[in-house]
Description:
This protein is an alpha+beta fold and 285 residues long. The protein has two domains: 132 residues, no CATH class; 92 residues, Chitinase A, domain 3 (Roll). A four-stranded antiparallel β-sheet has the order 5-4-7-6, with helices on both faces. Strands 2-1-9 form a three-stranded antiparallel β-sheet. The protein is extended and about 75 Å long.
Amino acid sequence: MLARVNGEPVYGDEFREELQRIEVKSTDGLPVPDTLKIQARALLNDWVQRKLLLQVVKTSHLMIGIDEIESAYLRVRNGWRPKGFEETALERELSVSDIKSELRNQLLIQMYFRDVVFSRIAIRDEDIATYLEKSPDMLSFPDRVRARQIVVKTEEEAKNIARELKKGMPFTEAAMKYSLGPEARNGGDLGFFASGEMPRIFDEICFDLPLGALSPVVASDYGFHLFMVVERQKAAERPAEEVREEVEAILRQGAEELAQEKALKELWEKATLELPTEKELNEFL
Length: 285
């Protein structure tokens, strides 16, 4: 036994197995001693916190259905490249039941925070008003432009594309055909952006570029660009009602983070813990 959390044991063999799965290796394949010590203490703290959470979940009588666990398992599995999921599970010596058990625990902890801790949070009208007083910029839109871009690796490629555009090829078609940017599938559409929200070169070109005109070839750290501004929006006021949901979401996120920190701190403070000293943990390793 390595530790106790409110009387519940943390067994050394299980802990060592998990540590071996996550430990950082040096270039010759051996553990890095100092890193291993740091990882061991961090892993032990994670295990203690997890046990504390699962203990309080148990007393809260929260339940997760089999269907929810199966859905979570399929989402995890489908998020991997083909065979990647099986290879990783095999490498970490995890069975399907191990993975589903871990997902069940994750879902229970998420439910505890959502239904027990966060349910006590209320965002009041005066909280929103105070936030807007301190952040008046949220009540207005700055000047914005909507632009499209084509980005390629070489200047020669960009110049060749520019010649095709000048001959009549639609910008959206050229972007989908040639551009390396993630927005290429949308015809190079970058959406609306204000000054300072994109790399500096975007501001320098797009805010002075006439509507519908093709920019010269522009170099950046990302490659060689061609821009076209397709729409402009002048600065405008936004009514408070319009930004209410946005402000409420910001305040709620901050309140939830604080509530989670407070709940975890209280669990640690109330717990009866028997943990190894640094010397004992190092000897265990």
